[in-house]
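ok, trying the design again with the full structure, not the truncated one.
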């Protein structure tokens, strides 16, 4: 079970990371110069493409690790752990950055002069992750109190 879980985590991270890298390569190298480098904004363009790739891999890693820990926790009958709650909060945090880079990917590819700040796309899922994290933390506290009850 442990080896299978580790393989699943590695495959998921590789798959999502590879997809974002292919998006970046399609934008920069492949398709005959699809990328429009703007000399005034080149630093931002590189930052957004690299950030999109890195946050995609980070999000896939956090979610895959959370799924693995939840499944192994079910087997050990220890589902509500503080490590899982921290991973839920971390996934919301990483997701916010990933969406910001993904929404500005068009800025990086076309060399446009305006960046966007996708507040609804960033805030709503991050808020859901945060609420779920707090609910999970409350479940951990309830479990601790039930364990202490005779």
């Amino acid at each position: 079970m442990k080896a299978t879980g580790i393989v699943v985590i590695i495959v998921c991270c590789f798959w999502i990371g590879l997809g974002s890298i292919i998006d970046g390569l399609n934008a920069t190298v492949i398709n005959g110069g699809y990328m429009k480098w703007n000399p005034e904004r080149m630093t931002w363009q590189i930052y957004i493409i690299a950030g999109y790739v890195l946050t995609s891999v980070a999000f896939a890693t956090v979610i895959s690790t959370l799924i693995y820990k939840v499944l192994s926790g079910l087997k050990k009958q220890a589902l509500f752990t503080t490590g899982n709650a921290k991973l839920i909060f971390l996934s919301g945090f990483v997701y916010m950055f990933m969406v910001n880079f993904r929404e500005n990917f068009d800025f990086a590819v076309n060399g446009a002069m305006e960046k966007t700040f996708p507040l609804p796309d960033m805030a709503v899922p991050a808020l859901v992750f945060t609420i779920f994290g707090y609910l999970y933390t409350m479940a951990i506290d309830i479990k601790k109190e039930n364990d202490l009850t005779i």
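Keeping the full-length input from now on. The CA atoms of residues 66 and 84 lie 6 Å apart.
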